[in-house]
Structures are given as structure tokens and as C-alpha cells.
Amino acid sequence: xxxxxxxxxxxxxxxxxxxxxxxxxxxxxxxxxxxxxxxxxxxxxxxxxxxxxxxxxxxxxxxxxxxxxxxxxxxxxxxxxxxxxxxxxxxxxxxxxxxxxxxxxxxxxxxxxxxxxxxxxxxxxxxxxxxxxxxxxxxxxxxxxxxxxxxxxxxxxxxxxxxxx
Length: 165
Hints:
Elements: E1 4-9, E2 23-31, E3 41-42, E4 48-57, E5 62-66, E6 71-79, H1 113-138, E7 139-143, E8 156-164
Antiparallel strand pairs: 1-2, 2-8, 3-6, 4-8, 5-6, 6-7
């Protein structure tokens, strides 16, 4: 069957948000049908090649775009079994690294903007890694079974990066 009722919405500045001159972002709204196929629903737009798609909102499932196969996959997110300190990683143990930003130069003077930015960037990357580890520890992600009826999943919004053909 496939995705139905695919509606594109172009923002006023959608052409200005492009990464490359022929690429730009569009928002699409899709409705799923009554029989989810193995591996996901194919996503194709007329006269445009889909580069990436990001699930914005809507639906009771977690959606991801598989760029290798050009399909939207639906996942059921379940809470993982209770975590113990012996089996979990740093995030599961509650041992997340303290990311308080305190930067001072060795002479006690304020550091330069570049040093501060570098330190903040490194700490934000560590926080992102910790959050990904925590999410992976707390939830399991399972693709919905083939032939699952997703016809109740309507008005699902995605932000899609397209390359004009």
C-alpha cells in the first residue's frame, strides 16, 4: 500500500535554508495505511530526491528515516527492564559526569573566547554522549511488525531535506 496523503509545505525561506544550491528543507505531512511493510514505508517525492527526513511530531510511534533504503521506519519504544549498577554503563549507574563549566586561565585571568567556546563545545559533546547512553539504557527500540495496521497514524509531520532533480 504505502504512505497516503503526502502534503508538502514550503516555508517562506525554505529555499534560503538549503545546504547546497539545489537542496532545501520542506515539511511534509503523511498518513500511514493499514499494512506496514517489512523494512518501512517508501518515501518518494515527485521531482525531488529525499536526502534526509526528521520526524517532527505526531503519531504514537517513534519514526526514523532510513536513507540507505529511502524508507520511513516505525518503532515501538518500550521501557527497558530495571537497571542495576552492576549491569548498566555510566549513565545507568547514575554516574553522569558533572558538566559544570568553570574555566580560568593559569594566571587567574579570564580565558579568551576561543578557549571558552572550545571547553563548552567539548562539555556539550560529552553531555550529548551521556544522554544517548541514558536513552539507550532506558528504552528498547523495536521496529513494528510487518502488516501492523498504522491507519490511525495520520498527520505525521516530517522535516525533509530534498535535492531538486
